[in-house]
Amino acid sequence: MKWITRKRPKIDRIACPWLIKRFIDADAEIIYVAEQDVIRKARELGAIPFDVPHVEFTHYQDKCTFDYFIEKYKLEDEALTTLSLIVRGADTDAHHLAPQASGLWAISAGLAYNYKDDDELLEIGLTIYDALYSWAKHLKHVKHTQNTTDSLFLDVYHKYLKHQKEQGKKTPSWAKELKEIIQDQIDININVSLKDVSEELNVNPAYISREFAKHFDNLSFGDYIRKLRIEKAISLIESTDYKLSEIAFLTGFSDQSHFTRIFKKIYDVSPAQYKKALKSKIHPKGKISSK
Fold first, then answer.
1. What is the 3-state secondary structure (H, E, C) of 21-61?
2. Do residues 57 and 48 touch, judged by C-beta distance below 8 A?
3. Which of these three, 117, 139, 161, is where a domain ends?
4. Strand partners, 60
5. Which residue(s) pair with 32 in the sheet?
6. Considering its fold, how many domains does the chain have in total?
7. Mean pLDDT of 137-152
8. What would the mean pLDDT of 273-290 be, rounded to a whole number?
9. pTM beyond cutoff 0.70
10. Distance between the two ends of the chain, CA-based, in angstroms?
11. Do residues 156 and 115 share a domain?
């Protein structure tokens, strides 16, 4: 089959040819022409136009052409579903859909800037999408750096469930969904906010913010996360030789100053004082008051 679209591709017009060649027709011919010539050339060459207005293979509502190819050819592949969010986010500037979307846009724009020959650009783009697909298929759950702040959200949920079980309290329906949301966000390595959670739960963020303290140690969403970060920091101080600046980074604080301020607010001493007490072989918990 022959497929034709606008020249100077960046996202959809590279992603769709990759999808065609890898899942629909390995021998497909991709043709790039000036936008005003796409329909005329499609008729002359017997090619199928895509990613242009008023044709079948194009954008529909908030979805891009890549989405339509997947739906049209019933490509049921979890990795493609993951990839479709990244492509859609990059192609429509909806970078909130996937954390990889802004990166894909940056790489695609850079490639288009560096390579002026569309066929050469396509060949390089195919390699990029092969790599993205392999990541989505086999490596999505692999983290480059362990002990990142994202993992703390899972700790929040499990500690909450344990607490609720011990207290025999009924778990609210919105909290039951929280585990899946948190795990999904961790899996794609994205920072979760109260807004993100509320949108997925379809529960007003003001309500979650108000009710959160009742189920999480009488702390706000932000305070509870900060508390867990400090607990994680203490674990790293006690079990590793990381610098305090490195621990601040690994536990999600904006900088060491922010880390020190929050640590001192909770433990009445600075992280440096806590670390010094450990080196002096004085058990910190015997010297440091905890609020």
1. HHHHCCCCEEEEECHHHHHHHHHHHCCEEECCCCCCECCEC
2. yes
3. 139
4. 63
5. 5
6. 2
7. 62
8. 63
9. no
10. 69
11. no
